[in-house]
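User: My notes are a mess, but here's the protein and magnesium ion's SMILES. Can you give me a structure?
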Amino acid sequence: MTSGAVPLRARVRDLLLEAAEVYRGRPWEARLRTAAEDGDSPLRVALAGRVKAGKSTLLNALVGVPVAPTDAGECTKVVTWYVHGEEPEATAWLRSGRARGDGRVPLDLRGGDAALRVDLGGLQPEDVDRVEVRLPSPRLERLTLIDTPGLASLSPRFGERTERFLTEGDEVGGGADAVLFLMRQLHAGDVNLLEAFRDPQARPVPPVNAIGILSRADEIGGGRPDALAVARRLAEGYSQDPRLRPLLQTVVPVAGLLAQAAATLSDEEYRDLRETAEVPAAVLDPMLLSAIRFAAPRRGIEVASERRRALVDRLGLFGVRWALALLRSGEAGTRDDLAGVLSAASGMTELRWMLDARITGRRDAIKADAALRLLLHAAATDPVPGIRRLAAAAEQLRLGVHDVAELRVLNELRTDGLALPAEVRRRMERVLGAEGADVRVRLDLPREATVADVERALLVEHAHWQRLAADLLTPPEVKRASSVLQRTCEGLRRDLRVGASG
Ligand SMILES: Nc1nc2c(ncn2[C@@H]2O[C@H](COP(=O)(O)OP(=O)(O)OP(=O)(O)O)[C@@H](O)[C@H]2O)c(=O)[nH]1
Ligand SMILES: [Mg+2]
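Assistant: No problem, the inputs look usable. Here's the predicted complex:
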């Protein structure tokens, strides 16, 4: 491919700028210009879901420090962007109509590393389009995280803001590139909301960039000892649920609170847990039946009532039970041991892996695909002279750039745009890396398969898709998908050779 010499980002940017010229003076101009310059910025990942689903807690766990307010009484009222910056600072962007000057208002950012507080000053949440918090956190270098107000909240006006942001983007910064959609249990409201993204061109976040999260996983099953195993099974069921399948690429269980506590567990908290673990079982076990019992004032227990309450707030009841069990069995001899086990149980490692493999690892393709879809959407809704040629070029890029083409096939597989039997669909998804990027996973080979085994399997796989593409009865869109699969196999073979020789 000769055009491969010019990087994808540059080609997409040039095309969008050209389209912006075509729309000069019309509403699409600004959106296309913003999207053209967006190729170099970090991916924007929004956390969305119903009220109290645990969005802000998970955001804090992802950043590694508590930056978003999460108290039980506290709800997120404005869409808040957490962006990488050299110095901590916060800015509000006012909604148009309310704006003075350029619409920006600097805000007070209180607190140090431990916990931040953004003060809206005299501003009303409903006048604010979004708040941007800049932080020198390395975790934010590759990802901008966006906290959103709970959907279907008691005050619908906050939830509506989220819905509008997710389906249309905001006034200044555009929309999200990917969404983590949190749900505690599958709820009809979740399906309705996710349905709102269905419009295949306007929808800013295609299902392949949306990961479902079964949140507060430790509470599932009423805090049973095997809560996380139960959550894992439930999440697997959801990810195959016909209502969710077309809307999300997968569903994973995560206990954000455990992850956050594990990341920031203090020596003092560890000591309090250790001392509590030494209380005789006959006294301790009944205390562990509820958060209220656990924190109730009690004589003869070293750790004071308010300190026990603080432990439950930090770890949740399940987390406390589990930490105590680990301490009693000697599996958590140090603070770091305990933090390690809690962190492993939180599902956070899997989530990070998934974010890396499926979202940040596909950054360029995701950005390019979103920008090209925006151009196509503009061309479809405002077909000015001169845009047809650019729309055709955008289609060509989507087909010609393999990563983008793969992404498109993955989307079509989720949204049933391809008429294929379930097992063929699953095989396509697997080869395209939906279950893991590793070549052995993609080919359903055992871990110990040799390079020669992999090479052989790749040839078989390639031939399979070649046959399907060549079959006269195969519908055109499946032929196109099969050609993408062939190229995927060719790419994997090249990587294998490079790996084997290097
Ligand atoms: N047990 C447990 N509790 C959690 C978990 N995540 C959050 N919580 C608790 O759930 C409550 C709500 O958490 P938030 O993170 O504020 O939820 P949110 O979705 O941001 O809420 P809104 O902004 O009001 O919509 C808090 O009391 C958290 O401590 C979790 O993984 N496990
Ligand atoms: Mg919140």
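The radius of gyration is 25 Å.
User: Great, I'll file this with my notes.
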